[in-house]
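Record pair follows.
FIRST:
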Amino acid sequence: MQCRGLALRSSGRLKAPLDPNARWACLTMSRRRLILSVAASIAVGVVATYTVAWACVIWVPRPAPRMVLTTTTATSGGRFPWPAPVPGDWPCQCSFIANDEVFGVSAAYATHCSVPFRPTHVLYAVDSGWPLRAVSSTSRRILSPSTMSPAAELAAWFVEPAIPIPHWIPGRSRGARALPLAPRWPGFLVNSAMFASLTFCVITIPGPARGVWRRWHGRCPRCAYMLGTSGRCPECGHLSAPASPNDRSSRQRPATGGVSAAVPKRTASQLALDLAARQVESDGWATTPPVVDSALLDALSSDVRDIEAKAGLRNLLDISKAARALASSDPVRHIPEALLGPRCFVTRAILFDKTPDANWKVPWHQDLAVAVAARRDIPGFGPWSVKDGVVHVQPPASILARMVTVRVHLDDCGLDNGPVRVLPRTHGLGKLDAAQIEKLRAACTEVACTSPRGGLLVFKPLLLHSSSASTNPGHRRVAHFEFAAEDLPAGLDWHARWS
């Protein structure tokens, strides 16, 4: 139903590998949010895995370790194997081993005694984490039997890999006061995935859930304003999804006198315009099938017939009554109202006409100038210019971002008519210099915006676009309307405010 144009590389072939910064710039806002949400969830999952493991090591109370004296672990000579790797110059057997298993922590304490009950080599292995053991560390200490004491046993451990616990942090850890660092991969991956999944749900679910709740109650998912039956918010202009048969907002409501009023059906043109508005909001541009009444097109064509030999006409609203009627028509205002609100107005109208006598090529650029009533020197506005007696100025990017351009095709526009070509999703990058434009040209896929007579091309002024020269001997007439919805600051006024 919706004519989206033909995607083309300017060279006809796949270009060189995309620059990472330009690739990121070409992503839609929803994809950027998804990528950032996933990355943030993974980072939080890893941090949470370490945090839980360290909290268990520091604060989970642990009873005295249970000595293991079973013959199943005994080796020759009544000795036991070390529970973790030890240096090569240590004794190959240990004399005693004890296990410590509590919530979130598994520990093994082993010693070698050259003199009975006087440990000379001490090893303390810790695995911690929840729900699975995720990180581990090993503590080693060589003591002299003559200086052995409980205080000496806990002082100056050689720990790897771990972070020493500051003495000002109270805790119940045994052995060396250190936080384990080495991942135990099965448990580390499972714990990180679990915490990342919980974080992702916390980040992504509340917004859509709130939108569903509001839509269920017949309100705008974005601002909670009552929608009515159109599916388009009259307050913020947001387009919500068409209501399902079970939604409260889509049910028949009793009208005056007890007669039920059915929700009016939307026409194919209205649905096409709604879809186009969604695409403009995400990609910065959209085209539509024929939605404008041919009578309006014929009236405008009649008004400008005497200037068909020229390349175009500025100040179209001041000259043509048909142009004013076209600017006020529902199909032309539908998308601007959806994006800017019902109070939007036309600030400038231009007629373009490519013919064999007036044919030109437009390089890649952004529409940075707007028409104003008079010049006022305001910080952030400039440079200034005068075109056909009308003052123009380049406003800040924040003002251009809240404008929408609608082009109405008075003739069929195919690939041989020099159609507008766009770089999708570049409208959110602000004002771009020549180097940035060249980089985006190499990174993004250009789209040729073909359209039949009566179709619309709608785009944001900051979207990168261009057009090639026409190779068709016929006309390619386009009525260009620029919409805004806000007043200019510091007493500066628009050249026109037609609604």
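SECOND:
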Amino acid sequence: MIVPEPSDRMITDRGRQQRQRAGHLTRQGGQSLVELALVVPLLLLLLVGVIEIGRFAYYSILVSNAARAGAQYGAQSLATAADTLGIQQAAQSDGQGIKTPTLTINPVQRCGCLATTLGSCGAPIVCVKPQHPLVYVRVTTIGSFNSLFKYPGLPATLNVTSVEEMRVAQ
């Protein structure tokens, strides 16, 4: 009768253990792949949302800076406050990341006395002392933001509006 050596028995036990581990690892690998397949679309959707919000924030900053630049140009003097074309050009040149047809610039002059409400600047303003005439420039910019994708429940184009008002130096 042939008696197996103890070292042969250890080799067979090791082989059996390795085969069991290999089967266990294969099942875990399949489970990990299923989990990855479920999580990756959610992570990509989250990433696209973050990118879209960042683009919207950047665009709204551009629109706001364009309105501020137009108001700063108009607030330099009474002559520049009346120069609507110059105000529009100053706002347009500051908002260079915005395409021309999607940016609307509307400058308005507002006049009044210190204690009264401001109105249009058509007629000369007479103020009672110690009040004095004031002139303000208000620049409204409207830009159209186009999103990368169409989202359910949201419009494809959003209007971003910024209003800046500054007192004209006299």
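COMMENT: The chain has one domain: 7-167.
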